[in-house]
Amino acid sequence: MQTFIIGRDAGNQIVLDDKLVSRHHAQLTVLDNGQVMIKDLGSSNGTFVNGNRVTETNLNAGDIVKCGPVFLNWIQYTQVAPKEKKTDILMVAGKADEWNNKFLSFINPFLGTIDNGSFFRRVFGVIYVVIAILNILVPFYILFKAIDIGIFKAEGKYVLTFLLLWCVLALLCWFSFQLWWNRRDKVNHSSYAGAEFVATPVVAHFIQTFGEWYGILTGVLGFLMGLLSLVFSGSNDYSHYYSRNPLDDIFSMPFLYGSGWSLIFLVR
């Protein structure tokens, strides 16, 4: 009696290199009288003979064995080969099965990139790069916007305040650029290859990085904008300050004001 293990594992006698084939998918047993038995080894996607799912059954010449998405044509008791030539009836059935298999599994390459985590790492890696580049462009956008509004023709205190805030913003954006740019490499190590639940650590890494970036931006720039609004308006009435301060038209990021003052209240 001889036994042959069919599956994805490289140590098997019959290796089927497909992700939907279990590592130890099925077992062939050749009895002393020449009869061949096939037994499913608890595979995820099942073992089929001539279209019927089986747990254990006899094999005869010409039977079509399907392990997951892979078809095998049983030729004789010493050989299993990829399905090539069959009788007309078996050829029609085989083509129908193959079409159904392709229809149901054409998305497998995409699912493979999700399973091994490369999809999430690539997508979030691109997001990190885009955010890093945007951080570099923000100071230039603010500067051009200020020139267009005519900030340098305003009162001296507003010009001085703008230059101070712009320098702080430029430094923060440069720091933010380095933060996002460096984290794009670390996101690749947030989970190991072949791990399950890859999306969770990758998304958590993004949320952590975003929180650090947002906290620094609002904590420093938001605080300064809130403080200067009080100094130059002589009041903590934000609407009064907004209506007369040209800086509001330039730094039109209201979330920074509220966030900055929130930090002041927390410190108190």
Task: Please give a structural write-up.
This protein has 268 residues and is α+β, with helices and mostly antiparallel strands. Helix content is 56%, strand content 16%. Strands 2-1-3-4-7 form a five-stranded mixed beta sheet, with no helix packed on it. Helix 4 packs antiparallel against helix 5 and helix 5 (199-233) crosses helix 6. It starts with a strand and ends with a helix. The relative contact order is 0.08.
Elements, N to C (H/E): EEEEEEEEEEHHHHHHHH
Helix content: 55-70%
Low-confidence stretches: 76-100, 233-243, 254-268
Work out the helix count: 8
Q: Order of strands across the biggest sheet?
A: 2-1-3-4-7
Extended strand count? 10
Class computed from helices, strands and strand pairing: alpha+beta
> In whole angstroms, how far apart are the ends?
83 Å
Mean pLDDT: 71
How many strands, which pairing sense, and closed or not: the largest β-sheet? 5 strands, mixed
CA-atom Rg in angstroms: 33 Å
Gist of the model:
The protein is an alpha+beta fold and 268 residues long. It is 56% helix and 16% strand.
